[in-house]
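User: Hey, my collaborator sent me this sequence without any context and asked if I could get a structure. I don't really work with proteins. Can you help?
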Amino acid sequence: MNTNDTNDEFLNFHSEFARESLLMNLKNWINGMEENGTSDYRVIAIQKRFYEDVRSSRNDNTYWCTEDAEKEKRRNNKRPTLDHYNNPRLVCRLIMNDHNHILHDKELFKEIFLDCRKVIGVTPAQNNMVKYTVNTDINSIKSSYNDFGCWIYYNPIERKSSTRDKFPLKFIDILT
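Assistant: No problem. I've predicted the 3D structure and written it out in structure-token form, which is a compact way to encode the shape of the chain:
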């Protein structure tokens, strides 16, 4: 990234690039969805592309992690696995299947795109429990995050910390 670019320009570019890519591939998505609701290579490729668009725009660390991830960090000096709790592939699937009107609203799409960049810290095992598959259901993901137990917040810049018994963050509205 050019040092003259602002963070806003950078994020606007990535958001708009992702939105245009999804718009351009709407017909491919529809053709890639099979009658029984399963998806073919086109749908999988479009979801992967959206995930890569989110990833390449850099993660937005929420500074929340599970208690287990924090313990593992202290015990083994191992950083938590960063997890996009608003799963980009699932968000893509929901937009393309049920909410493609969002693709025509640049500001709403950008808001959703920015939320997809937010990450939390989990253990590798916890990350596997919420990993995206074509059968991923948002309710099972939400349940898993709550089942992970205590959540710890620590912002090293502000030196603030707190804990919560349940998952502390809000999911994107289309995921609820």
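In plain terms: The beta strands are 60-66, 81-84, 118-122, 151-155, 160-164. You can pass these tokens on to your collaborator as they are.
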